[in-house]
Amino acid sequence: MRFQPTDEQRALRDAVRQLLARRFDGAALRAAVARPGVDRALWRELGAAGFFALRMPEAEGGVGLGLPEAVLAFEETGRALLPGPLVATHLAAGTVPGAATGEAVVAAVDGELVEWLEAADVVRGDTDGAVAIRSVDPLTPLHAVRSPAAADPVAVLLTAAEQLGTAGRVCELAVQHARTREQFGRPVGAFQAVKHLCADMLVRTEVARAAVYAAAVTAGPADIAAARLLADEAAVRGARDCLQVHGGMGFTWESEVHLHLKRAWVRAQRAGADTESEEVLAADLLS
Amino acid sequence: MDLSDTPEEEEFRARLREWLAKVLPTLPPKPSPDDWPARRAYDLGWQRTLYDAGYGEVHWDASPATRLIFLEETERAGAPYVGAGFVGLLHAGPTVAAEGTPEQRARWLPPILRGEEVWCQGFSEPDAGSDLASLRTRAWRDGDAYVVSGSKIWTSHAEVADWCELLVRTDPTAAKHRGITWLAMPMSAPGVTVRPLRTLAGSAEFAEVFLDEVRVPVANRVGAENDGWRVTMVTLSFERGTAFVGEVVSCRRVLGELARTARENGRWDDPVLRRRLGRLNAEFRALWRLTQWNVSEAERTGGVPGVGGSVFKLRYSHARQELYDAAADVLGPRSLDLDGPWTLDRLSSLSYTIAAGTSQIQRNIVAERILGLPKGP
Q1: Is the pLDDT of residue B161 over 50?
Q2: What is the pTM of this model?
Q3: Do A177 and A78 share a structural domain?
Q4: Are residues A168 and A260 in the same domain?
Q5: Do A202 and B68 touch (CB under 8 A)?
């Protein structure tokens, strides 16, 4: 058993992180909030780097890697809050022309919603009568659809990977703030009430990491359902606690904390509600 | 990322399975939990059986992944747990192996491995719990012996132990972490008094140990005088690392039994309870994966288990309590019956967020040592 990522997998994760740090830093994030949209040049750059064609066979022009590598890559886009229908386009690679190279932006109906309907070149699923809603996440335009679509298990897993990225990032943001913000003459992170919030964020993140990576290795339905529940919990509760640790600043539009929480809420609504995954795992106990 | 066994691991697992299937039916019946001498004999007998079959040192010299397989397969097969061998095999033994002299290793390790001697742990004191380093049991030199006076508490297996790994204060003037020494004390020495403590579960699982001018040979000191805190930290990292592997396997089995019981008694039709069991399935699957993750990290780094064990212990201890709370809701009024299937497990689960470092102390460790937050006031 060699569960830890290989050197090649670590290198791939680092490469995605570096690309995003260079092309989608804090300034780019704030610019995206002011003027939401899919950055087509960055989309093509991701395509050229093999992000969308990662799991396609080499014979078909893909990178020929598997779910573990895809999960590591999506953890990074989740961390960076990169906007756009990344999961839908990744899943369309090899099926929808231009998706693999990043020439085409592909959206898909997922549960009762479709993200990025108007910005996409191709939309998969039944969007007849789709109605725009004012999205709580400024970086994810949403439409409600009439006929809900069943979730692709790979989409559930890649969403869990994005949630894992958020969980890790908000823990870092909370720790950075707790180490530097001083009250009562010392960093607030010296107080156990704050310190223990941060410790719980890390614990949730590491438990979710083990579940998400294992599901990427086995691709089993119960493992994917478990990954989803734990990653949703780690992301949503982590972002909530991160907001709390930031105090008043956490409640402002200027701080990036709310963007992580809102994206985590959007992703948690994909693939039906958590209750469906709980039912999968309940049924698994009797199998 | 790979969760499959290597060819060597696969071979070890197959051989172990075959051996367990052969040997387990020949074991004597489990003794009553209240019969300490019988429990000692049963637990040591199992260790002797392991030793004779070549598995005696699996806790010490096997790779972390091999040890994980050993713990997983023995639990799955329903083999006995280390029991009275716990401190010897998982605390004191590894400490002596890492820090003892060749003479000390030759004296203490073979009887542990052969299932001949039981160790207990004399760390906590009535006034030194979470703040273990403030312990006050005194030891002073008198010729070739230390003379020890004080009291210890929460000492498991004290009634049947041959040896006690004892922390004593040898320099009361030094900073609290610096004046502590690690001694191996014979429990038969004059001046040792054991008083069993009854737990809230009704059983006497641990004891108070009173020490009145007990003479312990200087040769029984492991590590240097006043270096006992560092020696102790080696021991604690073993406990927080892999001590719960078998328990996660058994919790997953209990969860399956809970689901089947709920289906039989009709409570499975309650979607809230059913989904709660589904969520617990996610929880224990993840804890099993986290165990595999930590073990494979130890394989990669080759070191003793580190602070990652605190992350596991924090989550697991709460999950275990939630599991047995869910069991009570599956059983309903029968959960109040002490002879019911999970009532005693529910009671004993209450110790998990306290023993071996409370959840609050674990959160301090995670926050300060992993996240780098400043130490508290």
Answers
A1: yes
A2: 0.94
A3: no
A4: yes
A5: no
